[in-house]
């Protein structure tokens, strides 16, 4: 009996390794169904009607063609990751609908989804870097992304209009649902008249905040020139180009959302010091970023954050995700005296730094 338990444990372990060995199949399959617009084919008008692979292809490829059997194999894999729900009909035909996770990949009534974020993170230039991940351990001065992309920094990659457009779509698709949730629970913008959003991309966050808090009469969307080149004109918002490691425009409050994890400790200290200089005596810096747990667990949240952290290491070298303690230490080094944390979203955390 004892031997049977040992074999069962070993079988379970071997299955886990086999699953990890084939893990590349999962993001590649997600990218494929996005490129084929499978989520939108199923979610037409929010109906989420279960369709067979052949029926999906009839929508995705209206001019004909495609191999339903190959698509079905991909859909079955993603069903095992709770992206699709499988319906086995009495005639043996398999149909698929979207789970709540899968719905995140479908275009909503505002034209938004998480699909651009997935595509942005799985572009060819990024994918080339992953085989060199061990180099980040052996020689941390060599960024895997730079090594395989002619020495080009990952942020410099966003010079092509198509790349910038994808970046902006990914940013908006991730930001809008998050900000709507934040604004239901966080009232830290109540006393603010001028709000600066550092790394605000298109200005969508500022626009949503100012709609909710009319006391904010001036919004400053601060980002790199190439990112702002296609930013739309929005009421009450001024786009200002620049580099936060060099200066930050003045305001009653400064916000940095999903930005710090893209910078090294030295760069973060510089940005936070510049934010400190830009604020009045009663001003505050609001940072919204993923925060690493002190202890590692097997939760989906921890896996998402640690996966993102290794992504930053691979693509951006010294950039990293941080714990609450590490954020507090950076704030103190930048001259801030008080630190508060607000857990609102399942992934991102709101932190306030007061002078």
UniProtKB/TrEMBL annotation:
PROSITE patterns referenced in this protein's UniProt entry, alphabetically: SAM_OMT_II
Transmembrane feature ranges: none
O-methyltransferase dimerisation domain location: 19-107
GO biological process: methylation
Top-rank lineage group of the source organism: Eukaryota
Molecular function terms from GO: O-methyltransferase activity; protein dimerization activity; S-adenosylmethionine-dependent methyltransferase activity
Keyword check for Cell division: no
Keywords: Methyltransferase, S-adenosyl-L-methionine, Transferase
SUPFAM superfamilies referenced in this protein's UniProt entry, alphabetically: S-adenosyl-L-methionine-dependent methyltransferases, Winged helix' DNA-binding domain
UniProt key word S-adenosyl-L-methionine: yes
Domain O-methyltransferase C-terminal span(s) in chain numbering: 130-337
Descriptive protein name: Caffeic acid 3-O-methyltransferase
Organism encoding this protein: Pisum sativum (Garden pea)
């Amino acid at each position: 009996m004892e031997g049977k338990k040992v074999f069962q444990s070993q079988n379970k372990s071997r299955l886990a390794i086999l699953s990890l060995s084939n893990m590349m199949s999962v993001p590649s399959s997600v990218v494929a169904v996005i490129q084929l617009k499978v989520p939108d084919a199923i979610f037409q008008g929010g109906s989420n009607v279960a369709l067979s692979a052949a029926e999906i292809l009839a929508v995705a490829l209206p001019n004909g063609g495609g191999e339903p059997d190959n698509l079905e194999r991909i859909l079955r894999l993603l069903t095992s990751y709770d992206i699709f729900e499988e319906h086995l009909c009495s005639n043996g035909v398999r149909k698929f609908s979207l789970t709540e996770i899968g719905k995140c990949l479908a275009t909503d009534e505002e034209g938004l989804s998480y699909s651009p974020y997935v595509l942005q993170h799985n572009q060819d230039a990024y994918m080339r870097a992953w085989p060199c991940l061990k180099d980040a351990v052996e020689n941390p001065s060599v960024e895997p992304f730079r090594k395989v992309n002619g020495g080009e920094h990952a942020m410099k990659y966003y010079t092509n209009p198509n790349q910038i457009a994808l970046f902006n779509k990914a940013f908006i698709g991730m930001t809008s649902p998050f900000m709507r949730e934040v604004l239901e629970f966080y009232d830290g913008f109540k006393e603010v008249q001028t709000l600066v959003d550092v790394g605000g991309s298109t200005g969508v966050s500022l626009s949503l905040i100012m709609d909710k808090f009319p006391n904010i009469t001036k919004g400053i969307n601060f980002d790199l020139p190439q990112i702002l080149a296609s930013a739309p004109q929005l009421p009450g918002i001024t786009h200002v180009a620049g580099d936060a490691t060099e200066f930050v425009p003045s305001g009653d409050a400064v916000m940095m959302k999903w930005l710090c994890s893209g910078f090294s400790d030295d760069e973060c200290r510089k940005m936070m010091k510049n934010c400190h200089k830009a604020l009045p005596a009663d001003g505050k810096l609001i940072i919204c970023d993923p925060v690493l747990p002190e202890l590692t667990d097997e939760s989906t949240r921890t896996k998402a954050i640690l996966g993102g952290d290794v992504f930053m290491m691979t693509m951006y070298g010294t950039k990293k995700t941080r714990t609450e303690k590490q954020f507090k230490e950076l704030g103190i080094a930048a001259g801030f005296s008080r630190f508060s944390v607000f857990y609102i979203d399942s992934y991102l955390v709101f932190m306030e730094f007061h002078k």
